[in-house]
Amino acid sequence: MWIRRVLLGSLLLLTLLLGGPFLAAVTGIADVSGNWRTATRAPAGLAPDPKATPTAVVQVYGARAFGWRGAFAVHTWIAVKRAQDLTFTTHEVIGWRYWRGGTSVVSGTGAPDRHWFGAKPTLYLDRRGPEAEALIDRIEAAVESYPFKESYRTWPGPNSNTFTAWIARKVPELGLELPPTAVGKDYLGTTRFAAFSPSGTGVQVSLLGLLGGLAAWDEGLELHVLGMTLGIDPLDLGVKLPGIGRLAPQPAKGPPGPATG
Hints:
By secondary structure, this protein is of the alpha+beta class. 23% of the residues lie in helices and 26% in strands.
């Protein structure tokens, strides 16, 4: 009897983990058949014109990863502009840059809201004015201190989402809630097994990014299995599913303030 229950439970879990990515692929939520050579990298019109914006800006974006990976995950990055700057600086982790050059972190100027090889970006966070200006030094310090510059793994991490989550934890005032499709956000390394959540409003445990859980004001309750997220967000009546992302009838709430310590 117990063997049957284990088998049924395993089948249900496998269905939950793979059903969402399958739907994302067959419904077109993720384009798994694109050609990177011809895929657009044009701006999506989500970022302000830096030359016409005299205030500081901090933005975080994400877009479906290229190819079959997009059925499971998004690629995320962070962009900053100081008050006096006439262009944005974008910080991100790119796997092929690591494989070619030995470092995974890439920083450069230009439009921060470009399509990610055909995938339209989503704006996750937008901070402007003196509040944003005060955070930029700390963001750039977090970029410099990223501990996995000389390492990259698409799954379970460290990858682009591990990088963005690292910055969020180092600068909890951002209040950044990464989507459940940001696979790799829960990878903490091989010797660290607990941390604040990326939003800074709760805590999480993680075993090599493969198994863990999270409880936070912003993110709600999450179970992490093989790098994928199942969860609920009680305050927003939201559900989090692998491949699909976050489903909720109302917009996200604001945090009461980040955790410290």
